[in-house]
Amino acid sequence: MAALPPDSSGRLLEIHARLCRHFGCPIAYFHDLAPLDELVSSLLSHRTRNADSGRAFRALRARFADWEAVRDAPVAAVQDAIAACTWPEAKAPALQRTLRAITERRGALDLSHLAGMPVDEARAWLEALPGVGPKTGAAVLSFSTLRRRALPVDSHHHRVAARLGLIPARLAVGPAHRVLEAMLPAEWDAQAVYDHHEVMMLHGQKTCFFTSPACGRCVLLDLCPTGLARARPPVHAPALPGRAA
Fold it and tell me: What is the C-alpha to C-alpha distance for residues 222 and 22, in angstroms, rounded to an integer?
């Protein structure tokens, strides 16, 4: 595991408190989907705007009677249904592979068994499926009706955490899940962990942009080494004697 900056857990708590005051916690869950529905939704959302992945999800539900029908349909029909997504030609066969893998492991398309598993075991079970990584596994456990204590880390959350010095800048999104989750207080329940993901994501969407972050109105500026460095005036080398400045 990559080395962490000093007192990362304490800084994370202050960051969380400020962002919760700013955005208003607790934050309502944005989905009320069964675990299998949430898995499909999460797989469609990769590198896709929420509005577009939502349209693709609704199109699948409208065109096919159930997920078994999606699993068994011609891949071209699934690809056509999810055309609103990025890379539907890749996501359609990948989705069907995931659905077939669940069927092979469970005997049916059913994820209800996750409710009775410890969170770490449930995440491992999900991440063993083709196409399911740490973010998707955590999203299924946190966002679905399971409402388990798991921390998804999307690109906005990851960017904010790196700029704040909570994780090394070169730490990839996948490994960042375990590093960031290890900083969370053990007493936090599922709602608090969900709130943390949401406020970090919202801060990335509304202030800490990928390009040209709005550091001047950031409620975390005094905690952010990246923002402070951007705000610091440039140091100019003194002119040499006999030369124009």
Answer: 15
For 30, residues 6+ apart whose C-beta sits below 8 A from its C-beta are 143
All structural domains of the chain with their residue ranges = 8-28+153-226, 35-143
In this structure, how many other beta carbons lie within 10 angstroms of the beta carbon of residue 240?
Answer: 8
| Cβ atoms of residues 86 and 51 within 8 Å | no
Q: What does pTM read for this prediction?
A: 0.88
Topology annotation, domain 35-143: Endonuclease III; domain 1 (1.10.340)
Give residue-wise pLDDT tens across range 150-204: 999 999 999 999 999 999 999 999 999 999 999 999 999 999 999 999 999 999 9
CB of 43 closer than 8 Å to CB of 98: yes
Class of the CATH domain delimited by 8-28+153-226: mainly alpha
